[in-house]
Amino acid sequence: MRYHDITKDDMKNGDGLRVVLWLSGCDHKCPGCQNPITWDPNDGLIFDDSAKKEVFDLLSRDYISGITLTGGDPLFTGNRDEVLLLLKEIKDKFPQKTVWLYTGYDFEDIINLEHLKYIDVLCDGKFIEALKELNIHWVGSSNQRIIDVPETLKSGEIVLYS
Ligand code: SF4
User: Fold this and answer.
1) Residue 54 and residue 108: Cα distance in Å, rounded?
2) What global pTM score does this model have?
3) Would residue 161 count as lying in a domain?
């Protein structure tokens, strides 16, 4: 698995101040995507132990609310195995921190993925240029949902994060 960047103290990709991991690999190819550089899964740096240590060191800071996995698409098929291990490790080491994940898939397409057990908030759906919205928090187009994953799994219906 490869990544393009690890950013810190980010306020634009989820609630609070967050660590953001920008992974490589996405095959949704949304017209108007702001990050086409991240589409190629073979581009970027290898997410090795030292990159993971950097993420964990940042996450251990008291004022950091949690981590956001984005890209690219963290649920790109080539990323899934490694992302699942990473999610498990994060929840084990930092149970008090929240995990947000951005994906181009709709929630209904990935409902059976084990990953969901380790995600607090899922921003789902492709970016659709015709539905672009500048005034909504955290997502780029109005079709994309900000989903409270634990509540959604519990109730069996989509519950939006608020
Ligand atoms: S899912 Fe996200 S990263 Fe992938 S093409 Fe669409 S907007 Fe870009």
Assistant:
1) 33
2) 0.97
3) no
